[in-house]
Amino acid sequence: MTGTVVTVTSGKGGVGKTTTTANLGTALAMADQRVVVIDADIGLRNLDIIMGLESRVVYNLVDVIEGRCALHQALIRDKRVEELYLLPASQTRDKNAIAPDQMMTVAQELQEMADYVLIDSPAGIELGFQNAVAPASEVLTVTTPEVSALRDADKVIYLLERDMGIEPRLIINRYNPRLVRRGDMLSRHDILDILSVDLLGVVPDDDNIIISTNRGRPVALDRNVYVARAYHNIAQRLLGYNVPLLQFQEKSWKDRMRSLFSF
Amino acid sequence: MEEADSATVEGHSSALKKADPAKRNSSTPPLEDQPKATFEALEENSEEGTVYSGVPDLRIKGRGEGVIVQVSDDQGTWDEALRLLRSHLERAGGFFDGQEISLSLGRRRLQTDELSRLDQLLAGRNMSLLEIRSLNPHTRQSARDLELPLTVRETPSGGRDSADPDLVYDSARWEVRLGEEVPHPTDDGEEQAPGSNALSQPRILSGRKVIAKTRRAAQVEPEEEPLVLAPSYLYRGTLRSGQVLRHAGTVIVVGDVNPGGQVISGGDVYIWGKLRGVIHAGAMGDESAAVGALEFEPIQLRIAGHIAITPKSESNEPGRWFWKRSSSGKAEMARLINGQIVVDPWDLS
Description:
The complex is a heterodimer.
Chain A (H helix, E strand, L loop, with lengths): L3 E6 L7 H14 L4 E5 L7 H4 L10 H5 L5 H4 L1 E2 L6 E4 L12 H14 L2 E5 L6 H7 L4 E6 L3 H18 L4 E7 L1 H6 L5 H8 L3 E6 L2 H9 L10 H13 L14 H9 L2
Chain B lengths: L57 E6 L2 E6 L6 H14 L8 E7 L5 H13 L3 E7 L2 H9 L21 E4 L44 E2 L16 E4 L7 E4 L3 E4 L7 E4 L3 E7 L2 E4 L8 E7 L3 E4 L2 E3 L23 E6 L2 E6 L4
Parallel strand pairs in B: 2-3, 3-4, 5-8, 7-9, 8-10, 9-11, 10-12, 11-13, 12-14
Antiparallel strand pairs in B: 1-2, 6-15, 13-16, 14-15, 16-17
């Protein structure tokens, strides 16, 4: 079986690439796929932190490429889900440590054993980004509904079209329907108007995401949490199913009660 | 506003924007290396009997990291061209010494001894050949025989400028310089009373606010020769953030110009789509240049040496105040009138 390599990019930092990669990987694994997520943000790694696997990191991507360990030694299995693995980045090196062809070798090897290889790209458009997209057959661009994020996303889409001939699919993150209704936030249509790429999904702005990130427990693990559904829907769409977009409403009364009494 | 629909995720597309990003040139390829607008088909044998009479047209252009020397391929003998080149270089003092030059020969047919005389001329001034661009197979062979650097493929139509990957198209390889300082346009949105400049055409300024005060930027260097109009260039597709399209003649874009995208043209610029980027029309000094778009919301507009911005919309339309810039929803066109950039409904009558 040859898996699919999907890189998650954005251009702008802080829009939610890592969170998206973690949750999407989790959701895919919960959909019975064998998933490997790779942290390509060498030097500023954080995928392991938000997945709660930080304490189990021994070897990393750079170790594998430089031959200090075998690939399977560096992979960390997330015990909460069947068949979800993490290949962490190095914290001590920087993005010049690896080259695109090396990344391709690692990704190809992982493709042989997994259904999906998700690569968490660093921000920017330099070598780190180029390394992360080099092996990709599919790219997801994450943006938030703000003008600066959109500008960077547009540039990234252009670079991907120009250099890789790939048109990425879009994930809109931190979407706030209430602000959109008030006219204070760009709507989904405004965003697609500019970027004109296919929309893969919309993730609402939800406190639960940050809470779960801090706990090292991706929110997708909890199916009963409303926002987790957004990630599961995206996973389903990635798998090829046609899932309607979530109907965004105000928080459910349960969530409102919960936030009243707080954690 | 939305979210109440249960639309499936098919992707938001409209025919206009989903144009193939692999741009397709117009059917008449713009000329890159020839100052005269000739449209003869490329025939490799057509130079067999060419007699070069007249004075050769020779242009030296500075461009970023190097110098381009263009020699017309249908006028003047090579000896005269070399003489011209020598006198240009002497007049320039030491300006070009040590430079690497790109030599653009069009279809001129040259033998090895002719090329080597050029090489010697350059070597005498410590200059060297970076590349030779030629459409003539005999010339290319001569260059190969002398082991002079040839560009791999030379096509008369425009294409990617490999030195600048964000450059979508660059016909004449000129650099537009607005002078050392570009003054910041003011955003005081002063209302210009219609008719205050004794405008003779009644349909100008019909109910439309004059966009921000313009200031005369340092003049663009005028061409020494009379402006030869290059043919128009048609680009199909959307110009994304970071993309630049440069052309000496009029540019027509079938698609949008996203914020962050740029068009620099020596002539007019027409956007058959949404204009949200930066446009410089009449970039070589032509103040009669115009800019038109179906949805006119540029971040910044420049016509010849003048620069202006559109003020942000003050409408209460939800979701629009930080985004749209005074778009009236109709096709509009901008022109320079009495030193001010004026935007009008695009009256097609």
